[in-house]
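Hi, here's the filled form for the chain we discussed.

Project: internal
Contact: R.S.
Residues: 191
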Amino acid sequence: LSTAQMKGRITTPEAEATLEERSEVVVAYDQEAGTGSFTSFRGGLKVASEDGSVRTVGELEKIVQTEGGSLSEIMSLPDAPTLQRPVDNLEFLLGSTDAIELSWEQIKNASSYALQVSQSRFFVDNIIDVEGRKKTSAKIGLRGEGVFVWRVAAHNSDGERGPWSTIHRFRVGSAESESPDAQNTSPNQGG
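And the returned structure, exactly as it came back:
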């Protein structure tokens, strides 16, 4: 969840979190295990547990609330990678290339990366959705026309994921659709 110019508040069965203004956080609660997690990607939050524990979670930090309400020590998260290639909104023509390379900057203390490629800016029904990539690049094949979006996140050695990168788009078209005599065959925008 995100807050704009107002603070926010969210409760789980064993803790309450107060969010700062302009924060982006993820709060999860596992009812069966009685555990919760509080992650801040931007801004921060203060978490108060039923057992009286209080922790302030800053940007790129996370805590876990265990069964019984106690709060873990603060864990650091890796930063979001910066996408490098291809540049945003680049167009590729089928037939002139059959694959493209996606690359991003290496993040200090990152042990692996997650990569998602989709035709939806909400990243549902992803075409590529992989975790555990050690390299800072991936070569993907081009199999059809369309507008695609992609993003990357870093994982630290404890397996904790940092925030997703900004989203970049690329378009795959055919030589026929680029011809001035061709009818309008714009790709499905997919969101």
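Let me know if anything looks off before we file it.
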